[in-house]
Sequence to fold (264 residues):
Amino acid sequence: MIDSVTLSVVIPLYNEEESIALLYERLTQALDLYGRSYELIIVDDGSTDGSFLRLRHLAQVDSRLRVVRFRRNFGQTAAFAAGFDHARGEIIVTMDADLQNDPRDIPVLVEQIEAGYDIVSGWRKERQDRFLDRKLPSVLANLLISNVTDVRLHDYGCSLKAYRRDILKEVRLYGELHRFIPALASQVGGTVTEVPVTHHARRFGRSKYGLSRTVRVILDLITVWFLGSYGTRPLHVFGTLGFIAAGAGTLTGLYLTFVKLGLG
Fold:
């Protein structure tokens, strides 16, 4: 067991048994070459294939790998949150398990953390995905999120990010808010930047996410906006709505009274 580590790499995983061996190989090669002490925390988000068995075998031969297993699929946000809870490194890096993120980009992100930023977000500048149902919705969503949160990033959806451990303690995750961590961290004073990262085409299987999550993203964006604008003064919203409702009710009551008494 490793007593202390500099870097924790947190990876949520769901039904990626074909990718696991190559993912582990790429991670350990890149991080061994980097030369920092590290741990790998892979969160099995209720996989129904052979993912957990493969992960357990790797963890038995490498103490740097720790596996967290969910009994059912709870989603990426819950998986990231569990990984953060188990992480011991002062710098936490997140990435996907589908081999589309490149572990060799991790030192580039960490360099910006050590330069003083609290969060460094990857930007898949040359994204290797289909245009109509993946890239176009992403471009539109990033424009919307950047304008609403005023934290301007090209690629909120890129899982390859680096965080200071301390800033994550200030961010509460629920729903599907993991993609909004830069905006949430900014609300508590965190500094954010982004760097271009490599993006590979998916090698095995297919994406677990599609256009169906667009509505959830919009609802989560409303939540982030509300937390940023009124999180410490909710009565400014609910009090105003209450006064409007009370005023409307009073006017309606006066009108009905007039109709009843004045017009018979």
Observations:
- The longest helix spans residues 235-262.
